[in-house]
From TrEMBL:
Keywords: Amino-acid biosynthesis, ATP-binding, Cytoplasm, Histidine biosynthesis, Hydrolase, Nucleotide-binding. Its EC number is 3.6.1.31. Pfam families: PRA-PH. Its main location: cytoplasm. It catalyses: 1-(5-phospho-beta-D-ribosyl)-ATP + H2O = 1-(5-phospho-beta-D-ribosyl)-5'-AMP + diphosphate + H(+). It comes from the Bacteria. The lineage of its organism: Bacteria, Pseudomonadati, Pseudomonadota, Alphaproteobacteria, Rhodobacterales. This is Phosphoribosyl-ATP pyrophosphatase. GO terms for cellular component: cytoplasm. The keyword Hydrolase applies. Belongs to the PRA-PH family.
Length: 101
């Protein structure tokens, strides 16, 4: 399973009947609800990270990634755009590294 695959599945749920899947149901509630769910899952992951429960953090991190992708899909932000932004930052940090040598 890659994030690309999961994002494609989530996008396919945008036009599905809300009662056909959890994702379709969440997307049908709108971008604000998707953002709220992402926030809840992020807080749950923070709590497990602070507690140091690695198994629980792993599970919550999966929830965070899933709900991040749902939130992006709800606002029609392509995952590729986010990855491109990370690439841009990586190449910038490479330049900064070279400049400081
Ligand atoms: N990765 C996930 C995934 N992670 C979390 N969740 C769901 O997100 C929900 C969040 O958990 P909560 O405890 O907050 O749920 P809840 O308490 O029932 O919800 P609320 O009452 O708070 O609204 C759970 O019902 C989980 O099933 C996910 N639902 C689907 N996927 C994947 O998304 C794809 C599409 O799934 P379907 O929508 O089921 O077709 C598939 O690849 C799935 O594996």
């Amino acid at each position: 399973m890659t994030l690309d695959d999961l994002y494609a599945t989530i996008l396919s749920r945008k036009n599905a009947a809300p009662d056909s899947s959890w994702t379709a149901q969440l997307l049908a509630k709108g971008p604000e609800k998707c953002a709220e769910k992402f926030g809840e899952e992020a807080v749950e992951a923070i709590i497990e990270a602070v507690k140091g429960d690695r198994a629980a953090l792993t599970s919550e991190a999966a929830d965070v990634l899933y709900h991040l992708l749902v939130m992006l899909a709800a606002r029609e932000v392509p995952l590729d755009d986010v990855l491109a932004e990370l690439d841009r930052r990586q190449s910038q940090s490479g330049l900064a590294e070279k400049a400081s040598r």
